[in-house]
Amino acid sequence: MLGTVAALYRYPVKSLRAEQLGSADVRADGFAGDRGRALFVSSTEHARTGKTYRGKENRLLHTVVTIDDAADLAVRAGVTIEAEDANPHYFDAEPVSIVFDTWIHELEALAGRTVDPLRFRPNIIATAEPQFAYTEAALVGKRLTIGSVELDVVAPIIRCVTPSYDVATGEPDPALQRTIVVQRGNIMGIYCRVAVPGTIHPGTAIFAA
Questions:
Q1: What's the predicted TM-score (pTM) here?
Q2: pLDDT of 24-50, one tens digit each?
Q3: Domain 3-33+93-208 in CATH: superfamily?
Q4: Residue 52: what are its φ and ψ, rounded to 5°?
Q5: Are 130 and 98 within 8 A, CB to CB?
Q6: Where are the alpha helices (DSSP H) in the chain?
Q7: Which of 55, 122, 128, 136 could be bridged to 102 by S-S, CB 3.0 to 4.6 A?
Q8: What is the DSSP letter of 61?
């Protein structure tokens, strides 16, 4: 036993604020409704014209929920955007991400401050058992069983600049970013693929094999 599920999240619009879930409908392609829409740059003569508009481009995106609010932020930055529906998701890499609190606590000790796990936009925040001693890399190749759901761990998550932005205010924290890059190898959390779909609830135990 590795730990238990502390909280579940999805992100209905890629790069916008998280939605906490009372339970997660985990399908073969990820959490139902996760990153089902994304914002695309429609401005001409922009470096990302036709590509997604993300937290990397606007550090305030993660603070808002609606597409209209995101469009207002973009306009203030001189960019026009359009929302598009996914078929079925807009993922950067793999469909499910997990962060264990042990890794967050390690980062907090290194950074000398508290760190909100939502900076890392996980689907699952997990509370580790006291004996938990795994790094992200050490879990790669293992199968996690969470109730009726089975997930295959495929990779550590290499981070971009967005975890350095405060979840509530968007304020940048360059010192935290340096700590993540230099002292944690720019890694936080694990990517998983769904082996067996099902439903996950907070408080469910997480086992590894």
A1: 0.96
A2: 999 999 999 999 999 999 999 899 999
A3: PK beta-barrel domain-like (2.40.33.20)
A4: -65, 145
A5: no
A6: 67-76, 101-111, 136-139, 174-183
A7: 128
A8: G
- What residues contact residue 167 under an 8 Å CB cut-off, 6+ apart? 62, 63, 116, 118, 119
Tell me the CA distances in angstroms from 49 to 14, 27, 53, 92, 100, one per residue in order: 17, 32, 9, 18, 36
Rounded distance, CA 115 to CA 33, Å? 27
> 39, 14 in Cβ contact below 8 A?
yes
Contact 180, 104 (CB under 8 A): no
Q: Is the peptide bond before 88 cis (omega within 30 degrees of 0)?
A: yes
Count, residues in the chain: 209
Q: What phi, psi does 115 have (nearest 5°)?
A: -130, 125
> Model confidence over 125-157: pLDDT tens digits?
999 999 999 999 999 999 999 999 999 999 999
Task: Map out the domains of the chain as residue ranges.
Answer: 3-33+93-208
